[in-house]
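Design a sequence for this backbone.
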């Protein structure tokens, strides 16, 4: 049985132009960091959209201290449990 209504997903990365899924990422270091995360998570099954990449970029530009504190707490709790 062939399913014809499923779109084929493609991760689009342009290293020369620093573009991921159509989103331009200013700054070589920021681009490389976001690209690394996207590629690693893509290997785990994540298919990021243009909106996902924009969200990552916005989060890098405007970090949420509350979210950062929660993440730090999670990691420290895990370390303390050993």
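Sequence:
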């Amino acid at each position: 049985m062939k399913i014809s209504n499923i779109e084929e997903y493609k991760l689009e990365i342009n290293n020369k132009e620093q573009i991921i899924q159509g989103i331009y990422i200013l700054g070589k270091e920021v681009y490389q960091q976001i690209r690394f995360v996207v590629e690693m998570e893509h290997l785990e099954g994540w298919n990021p959209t243009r909106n996902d990449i924009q969200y990552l970029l916005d989060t890098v530009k405007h970090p949420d201290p509350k979210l950062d504190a929660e993440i730090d707490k999670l990691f420290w709790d895990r370390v303390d449990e050993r």
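The chain has three helices and three strands.
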